[in-house]
Amino acid sequence: MDVASGDERGTTERVLTLLGLLQQRRVWTGPELADRLGVTPRTVRRDVGRLRTLGYPVYASQGVGGGYQLGQGQNLPPLLLDDEEAIATAVSLLAGAGGGVASTGDAALRALTKLDRVLPTRLRHEVRALSGSVESFGGGRTPVPPEVLMTLARACRDEVEAGFDYPSGSEVRRRRVEPYRLVASDRRWYLLAYDLDRDDWRTFRVDRMTDVSARTWRFRPRPVPDAATYVQEGVASRVYPHQARFLVHASAETVRAQVPPSAAVVTPRGSRLCEVHSGGRSLDFVLMHVLLLGHDFEVLDPPELGRRCRELAERLLSAAGQVPVTLRRQRPR
Fold first, then answer.
1. 128 lies in a domain?
2. In a domain, 25, yes or no
C-alpha cells in the first residue's frame, strides 16, 4: 500500500478516490468526475482503464443520462482500501478472529494475515489501539487476544520459531516450537507445532498460552501431518487416558450432525456405517455418549469395553426384572 514514487502514489490515491466516487452514485459523467478529481477527462478515462485492469467492471455509456457506472463483476477484484477503510477492516477481522463466531474466525484470520502483509507500519499502531476497544459476547470459541493470533500467524507464515509459556501439570514451562498451522475448532484455537525440546509434534491450546513471542530465527520446514486431522484426533482422543473405537450403524453425515468435532473423529465406512473414535476420562463415559446417539453399534476397541457392555446390559435388564437365563448362566463368579 505504500508506494515509493510520489507520482505513482498520487495516481494510486486518485484511482482510489475514483473508485469511491463510483461506489457512491449510480452514474457519473466524465466532466463531473474530472471536476471532482481535479484532472482532465482524458485522465479520468485512463484511471477508468486502470480500474478495469484490476478487475472492476466500469461501464461507459453515451448520450443523455450516460456516463460511467460501476457494475457487478463475475470474479472478486483486488480491494483498494484507503487508510480509514484498511483500519476498519483490520479491526473487524481482529474481533472476528480473536473471539468470536466459530464459523468465521478461521476465515477472518486468513484474511487478516493477507492484510497484515501489506499494512503500513503507521496503520498497524492505529489498528492495535482500536482493537482494544472491541468486545464480543455470546457463543463461539473461547476468546483469545487477537495480537496472540497475529503473532502466531506471522510466525507460521514467515517460518520463524515461536516461544510461549504453557501449563504442564502443576507447572508453567517455556516452550520453543516451530509453528506450522493455526487450527480452529468449534470451541477453541489450536496451534500445530514441532516442539523443539520434546522433538515431536504437539498440539497447543492458544487460550492457555502466555507471553507469546516470535523469534527471527528461521527454520527449515519439516514434512507436516494434515493439520486439521492431527489436531482433531488429539483433541477428541489422544489427550484422554482412555480411548475407544466403535462401528456405528448410521452414516457418517448423520453422526457428525450429532457429535461436535472436538468430541470424536467420525470416519465413513460405506454409506450406512461409520467408525467413531473418541476418548474420555473413563470408558463408561465414552460408552454412554455413543449409546445415547440412538444407533446400533459394535465395540471395536478396546476388548475390555466389550465385556463392560455385557456387564452393564445385565445390570440394566436386572433393574427392569428381565435378565435372560442365558445372561444369568454366563455371570462371572
1. no
2. yes
